[in-house]
Specification:
425 residues, UDP-n-acetylglucosamine1-carboxyvinyl-transferase, Chain, four-stranded mixed beta sheet
């Protein structure tokens, strides 16, 4: 079946309430899309270097989140050239990264900005920036009387200086502030008042900043920016393949499919590379029927698909320190547990995660209808579970994959998967 016809049929399926995936293993090669985390950061640093096109983004398969960030940065560029006291409007769609990265950027640029968004984004927290903005020269004004985060007005101009944030909140606050302050005049310091969680994401931010010429130093209790080296890269920046998206195919391989990933970097700052070691450890625990513990603090995005791997392993798996999953695109603790239950897997929600009773059976998932809660990672996790299901796995709101991996189902079909009767073989 021709590629354009496949895309057309998938688009038609997206307009329906749900999509059905027939049981069956996958086989073939996958070219993994660019890292969404790295792409956000590269776009921002390229913009601050004076040329957003330095960040080489494959527009043909760019996700909704990346499109939102790039469109916003282009709008910022126009606003900087055409100064006005009237706020510009930035639509972050459903992207938490876009919102949390660009709030401090708007403040440092001194561009009055009204931020809006859709889906669960208006409910997702941004209050940690309130303390940062006090005395900074900029201010945040909530425009909704119901107390939602959005719409939000940012105005004034944030100065270089010393700021504080807890380390145990979303790393997006820390990354956003570091990137924005890299273009401010003068030295800045960011003190972390608690231990840093999700460290790999901040490490990735620092790596990309350094690639764009910024001197950022990690200290015992935070980070410092010398202010002498502004973003100044002149060469193109190639965005590497995404381990968080590769994780779905790596779990498919763990479940018995023959999937090969052709472009994954062996050396990377991406924290989600941990999926490789997690699957190795899970496999060993299954051989010995030992309890396996996954600490989700640094790798929260891996939880839905890792839960699928755990369900197919002959041991009990405890996913811990996953509290922040409750404020993702869905309450990912509840939605992941509900997915497992619908597919016949025994599990229970704990104070900080999920406990899963895995079984290494050939058909370890029952089939059924999974409510993705419009969460892209739930859609893809349920799709991988279908490779070891007894019956068709139906998934509600499949169009959610557009948020991070628009070509996911096209790749799934090219690996021999069958979706609502579509078969490219």
């Amino acid at each position: 079946m021709e590629k354009e016809l496949v895309k057309k049929k998938l688009t038609e399926l997206y307009s329906s309430e749900k999509l059905g995936i027939a049981p069956g293993k996958l086989s073939g090669d996958v070219f993994v899309p660019q890292s969404k985390s790295a792409a956000h950061r590269a776009l921002i640093m390229a913009f601050l270097s004076g040329d957003i096109e330095l960040a080489k983004i494959d527009e043909s398969c760019a996700s909704d989140d990346i499109k939102a960030t790039k469109k916003a940065l282009i709008r910022f560029g126009e606003a900087v050239k055409n100064v006005s006291s009237e706020p510009i409007e930035i639509d972050c769609k459903e992207s938490g990264s876009t919102l949390r990265f660009l709030i401090p950027l708007a403040a440092v640029l001194g561009v009055p900005t009204k931020f809006v968004g859709s889906g669960r984004l208006p409910q997702r927290p941004i209050k940690e920036y309130e303390g940062v903005f006090e005395g900074s020269g900029a201010e945040m004004i909530y425009l909704d009387e119901t107390g939602l985060s959005l719409p939000l007005l940012v105005k004034g101009k944030m100065k270089a200086g010393s700021y504080s944030l807890p380390g145990n909140v979303s790393s997006q606050y820390i990354s956003g502030l570091l990137m924005a302050l890299s273009s401010a005049e003068g030295e800045s310091r960011l003190k972390l008042t608690t231990e840093l969680e999700s460290r790999p994401y901040v490490d990735l931010t620092c790596e990309v900043m350094r690639a764009f010429g910024v001197e950022v130093e990690e200290e015992n209790d935070g980070y410092s920016l010398k202010g002498e080296n502004k973003p100044n890269r002149k060469e193109d920046f190639e965005v590497e393949a995404d381990y968080s998206q590769a994780a779905f195919w790596l779990v498919a391989e763990y479940l018995g499919s023959d999937v090969k990933l052709t472009n994954l970097p062996k050396k990377t700052a991406q924290g989600d590379r941990a999926i490789v070691d997690l699957l190795s450890g899970l496999k060993e625990a299954g051989k010995k029927n030992e309890i396996f513990e996954m600490d989700a603090r640094d790798v929260p995005d891996l939880v839905p698909v890792f839960a699928v791997a755990a369900a197919a392993t002959n041991c009990v798996t405890r996913i811990v320190h996953a509290e922040r999953l409750r404020i993702k695109e869905s309450d990912r603790i509840a939605s992941t547990a509900a997915m497992l239950t619908e597919l016949g897997v025994k599990n229970s929600i704990t104070d900080d995660g999920i406990e899963i009773e895995g079984k290494a059976e050939d058909k370890c998932f029952s089939g059924g209808t999974v409510d993705s809660c419009k969460d892209h990672r739930l859609v893809m996790a349920a799709s991988i579970a279908a490779t070891r299901a007894k019956d068709t796995v139906w998934i509600k709101y499949p169009v959610a994959v557009e948020k991070s991996y628009p070509d996911f189902f096209e790749d799934y079909l090219n690996l021999g998967g069958r979706i609502n009767g579509i078969n490219v073989g």
